[in-house]
Amino acid sequence: MATTGNAADNTQIYYNVSFPEAQAHYADIEMTINGLKQDELELKMPVWTPGSYLVREFARNIETLSASANGKPLAANKIRKNIWKLNTAGIGTVVVKYRVYAFEISVRTSFIDASHAFLSSPDMFIYPGNMLHSPATIHINPYKGWTTVSTSLEKVNGDAFTRHSPDFDILFDSPIEIGTQDVFDFEASGVHYEVCMVGGGNYENDRLKKDMASIVEQETAIYGENPNKHYTFIVHNALKGGGGLEHLSSTTLGASRDAYDTKPGYENFLSLAAHEHFHLWNVKRLRPIALGPFDYDNENYTTNLWIAEGFTAYYQDIIVHRTQLYPTDNYLGVLAEDINQLENSEGAKVQTLAESSYDAWIKAYRPNENSGNTTISYYTKGAIIALLLDLEIINDSQAKYSLDDVMKYMYNEYYKVQKRGYTDAEFKAGVEKFAGKNLDDFYAKYINGLTPVDYNHYLGFAGYKLTDELASSNDAALGIATIPNIQRVVVTAVARNSAAWISGINVNDEIIEIDGEPVSDATKLINGKKPGKQINVTVIRDGINMDIPVTLLKSTKVKYKIEELPNPTAEQLTVRKKWLTLK
Questions:
Q1: What distance in Å separates the CA atoms of residue 455 and residue 19, rounded to the nearest whole number?
Q2: Where does 125-256 have alpha helices with state H?
């Protein structure tokens, strides 16, 4: 774990950030540390950013680093990939200068160009290793034309370009946007919200204010309080944008700038905003015990990302539904899409939900061509498990309780009272408290095991069932994925036990002929052919033409929809009303 100690008690840390070559994607940072009273000082750069479970080696973006004391050079010896050691015996003040290259567009990494700078703090700010609990002041020297700073960090003396962080955990949880972004605000649940729009877009400020406020109020109602005084949404609008990263009092979202005026685009944005905002409770405060205090040098393993992310993925859509921004049928369609995604994954037969959490560091963020056969998403299956537990609790309590009550109880008990994270057993006990029953069998099947989910058992509580629209289909399938939107058929994945898998078609093969007929459209490879049909597939592999005989198999793809059971009982309608917040 990163060390802390009393050496930091009277230390003052200042950062001065400038962008003399923003057009070339550089930031120059000068860190001044005053009040040192130690013989050695270790300077560290985090290797990962909380909320994104991959060691990203941020130190690789540091181009130069130098130190000085009393105007004279001071040796900074690199002793590990992300650690520099300085001899500070008899030295009270050290100045460290370094350059950071930032040109990776994502919600979890810094990006700088002439139009703006997005500083994802863990990959920008080196910190004194034994001073994680020390405060820091950050002064921004903007590039020419930049007028605005957006961040959840507090201003110093009203200066928007000078910000204060009480400690490094908060600094590393507070991204900073600098540029000419469009900023609007609203009030909801007693909290001031600022929305920072970068990159333009066809959004309507007034519409977003109203609908985002509704989401905030619905989520706050679950927990009974909103722990922030102010909160910042940083939205990066791009030609094709997506993804988000949660923070204690802010979030960064990726969005498509021209999709706000379409029904799917707008609903996707609201769902993403609801997801990341829900994290201010679930993950940032109510958290698995392994996720804080953070070790910024190494992986932080937990088997509970299915709660941290999966439950949040469940709530993102049901929250938007509760705002009445779209109807019940729409919401049930979203649920069916999640179920289809899981049930059409070969990985669901291989990786348990707990394993998908624990192995996020080596698998989830490092997918390869075989990942679909070996892994699942803890977002998707975690959301499905949240659905099952919600229905179980509502049914077993005769609609007295729901999953909302579990989340509020766990938040109060572990974040507010015990002031720590929860263990696997403690979260399970919290669910059992409101379900009124032992869930050992549920956990053995669905969390730690590979038992297929009995959807109709749980949906039946609310008078619904799953129907497979492809159940009577006799379509054949080759079992491959290809590169979309090109006039070539290049294989990118092969499904386990499919016709392509059995016959030996490989990833990176380019399919050029089927039974001697040229092909260039992946959607028409086996048009009209039925299971059992033998075909000859001609591919180019490493520059060599090969003929591969293939016997087509029946497609195993499912396409579920959620339908109402005929003549639902009064008990089922009571569960449905509670679950879907119906009047």
A1: 54
A2: 168-171, 205-223
CATH for 6-179 (3.40.50.150, 2.60.40.3650, 3.30.565.10, 3.30.450.40) = 2.60.40.3650
Two tokens, residue 248: 């204690």
Asked if omega into 531 is within 30° of 0 (cis), the reply is no
CA distance 156 to 227: 22
Does domain 476-554 bear CATH number 2.60.120.260? no
Helix axes 378-396, 570-580, angle to 10 degrees: 130
The two structure tokens encoding residue 341: 């995604």
Residues 9-42: tens digit of each pLDDT: 578 999 999 999 999 999 999 999 999 999 999 9
Threshold 0.85, pTM exceeds: yes
Residue 522, pLDDT score: 85
DSSP string over 341-374: HHHT-GGGGT--HHHHHHGGGTTTTS--TTHHHH
pLDDT of residue 5: 39
List the one residue out of 89, 121, 85, 88 whose CA is nearest residue 102: 121
Pairing of strands 26-34, 40-44: unpaired
In CATH terms, are 181-266 and 476-554 the same topology?
Answer: no
Phi, psi of 77 (to 5 degrees): -95, 125
pLDDT for the residue 1: 32
CATH dotted code for 281-465+565-583: 1.10.390.10
Rounded Cα distance, 140 and 412, in Å: 37
Q: Letter for the amino acid at 252? A: T
Average pLDDT score over the chain: 96
- Residues with Cβ within 8 Å of 438's Cβ and at least 6 positions away in sequence, in order, are 432
List the one residue out of 474, 43, 77, 524 whose CA is nearest residue 297.
Answer: 43
All structural domains of the chain with their residue ranges: 6-179, 181-266, 281-465+565-583, 476-554
Q: What is the pLDDT of residues 325-341, one digit of tens each?
A: 889 999 999 999 999 99
Residues 6 or more apart whose Cβ sits within 8 Å of residue 583 = none
Residues lower than pLDDT 50 in the chain: 1-8
Specify the pLDDT at position 173: 98
For the CA atoms of 395, 396, 399, 401, what is the dihedral angle to 10 degrees? -120
Q: What is residue 131's DSSP assignment?
A: B
Token pair 């009203």 is found at 158
Helix (H) or strand (E) holding 117: strand 117-119
Multiple choice CATH, 181-266, 2.40.50, 1.10.3470, 3.40.1360, 3.30.2010: 3.30.2010
Element (H, E) at 513: strand 510-514
Nearest one of 175, 199, 16, 25 to 112, comparing CA atoms: 25
308, 290, 302, 544: which is closest to 407 by C-alpha? Answer: 308
Structure tokens at 230: 């102010």
